[in-house]
Design brief:
Blueprint (H helix, E strand, L loop, with lengths): L3 E7 L2 H16 L3 E8 L11 H6 L6 E3 L8 H22 L3 E5 L3 H12 L4 E4 L10 H11 L2 E4 L2 H9 L7 E3 L4 H7 L5 H8 L7 E5 L10 H15 L2 E5 L7 H13 L5 E4 L3 H11 L2 E4 L2 H5 L8 E4 L12 E4 L4 H9 L1 H7 L11 H11 L12
Parallel strand pairs: 1-2, 1-4, 2-3, 4-5, 5-6, 6-7, 8-9, 8-11, 9-10, 11-12, 12-13
Length: 381
Amino acid sequence: MSKRKICVVTGTRAEYGLFYPIMKKIQLSEKLELQLIATTMHLSEEFGSTYKQIEKDGFTIDEKIENLLASDTKSSIAKSTGLATILLSDAYNRLQPDLVLLLGDRFETHAAATTAMLMNIPIAHIHGGEITEGAVDEQIRHSITKMSYLHFTSTEVYKNRVIQMGEAPERVFCTGAPGIDNIVTMDLLSKENLEVALSWKMNRPTVLFTYHSETLSTSDIKEEIEHILAIIQRSGINVLFTYANADDGGRIINKAIEKFVSNNTDKYFISKSLGQLNYLSAMKHVDLLIGNTSSGIIEAASFQKPVINIGTRQKGRLQSGNVIDCTIEGLTETIHKAQSPKFQQYCQDVVNVYGQGKASVQIIDILESHEYSSTKRFNDL
């Protein structure tokens, strides 16, 4: 019996980190064969050429799709999506996958789903049913859900929402979030070894900061990030910054942070791509997370770390109790609250609502045993 060919399409460092435990198990499976397509940010030197880390981790990249335009305006993102669609059709033709496995809600992920759907290739989707009201990811995610045959959700609430969208219950599985698998299985670095890896001292208090543009907002992103950085400077905290994604406005954020960090490299450090090991190790050893990234909502609770979530990008996502939502104007007060002994102690009792690190095992079992199809019926409730 021939192996089922599972084609993973990944476009960012963060998404690849979530795919990692699943891809490792596909490699070990006697029933599945891994095919891998790297796109968008992975092929960009500006964002760290992270395809090299994928190869270093022992994966063979079957196709490299260079679709990212040099600017990050709304029109260039649309063009990058279109280019990805064209190039992915050729890649699928060459690889002939039995199923395309996608995660999340980015523009290149939508291109990968659209192309697979039009070529009658079944799709399995991870992290459907979630809500993020402040970003265009919201519409992209639900659109991918409607193009997909199998669904792997991170909570029962999200499973029910996918079913509410007309997907048959027997094709929707609550597996938990695969990113937590890495926390459970990876041998994370000690604080000292992480400092060596970064060539930077994590003096207390240290914050891990990741901030992306709110792609549905009409506000001035340059003004927003400069306001946030001014508050950080006044707070006196040390900060480990990571790059924003290649979204509309992402490069504006990265340039502002680069300039800010250059003024005080003892207190501040910026990385284009920490990689999953360094990123999770940093999350373990910092005192606080600030930004608006999904990892602050999903993974940080497993470390029982306080998180400050700025703005509306993640509005609607389930939280585990360690997250404080705030506006930019309220950031100063929220930093004080998050650092307080009372809130720090409160976080020690937090249980992560996104699971305990068993998602990849369940996903592999379903990919090995379940039927695949490019056609389905709408399931009326």
